[in-house]
Amino acid sequence: MLKLRLENAEATLEMGQLMAKALAEVAFRPALLLQGDLGSGKTTFVRGLVEALPGSENAEVASPSFNIFNVYPTEPQVAHFDLYRLEGMEPDEELFDFLGDSTTVTVIEWAQFLNKDYWPNQALSLQWSPERNGRELIVTPLGSKAQELLESLAPSLSKYTTESDLT
Q1: How far apart are CA 167 and CA 155, in angstroms?
Q2: Measured by CB atoms within 10 angstroms of the end CB, which terminus of the chain is less buried, N or C?
Q3: CATH number of the domain located at residue range(s) 2-157 in this protein
Q4: Residue extents of the structural domains in the chain
């Protein structure tokens, strides 16, 4: 687990960029499960992630609240889901197709609305909470591949880290 303090949108964008770099360097890509209130930084994080990948010039990042998901033509490809309107409902079949594809970066906003029985066994849970000046972000690995990814990412996040338990 890493606990981070992100003071502003620029820090959130940089967090997304650093995550993109780490994900581009691994063969297996854990899903990213984003949780937090409206305006907490989830879509800003996704924008930073997508814009840091090759092919992003052909991608316009927006929260897919109404169409449920967007696929961005980046390398690797990013599938961006927003489950805000699906609270208490079964997820679309497309979600499971992408969760089973380790070559795609699958990002799920409002993951707290997805029954935990459907959560993949290899994922990073990113939980945003508002703070007086900025946001706290707790990143928790689910599974050994996610743990390895977070351990490789941790040194580049040291300026934001307030607590670390990567044992």
Answers
A1: 15
A2: C
A3: 3.40.50.300
A4: 2-157
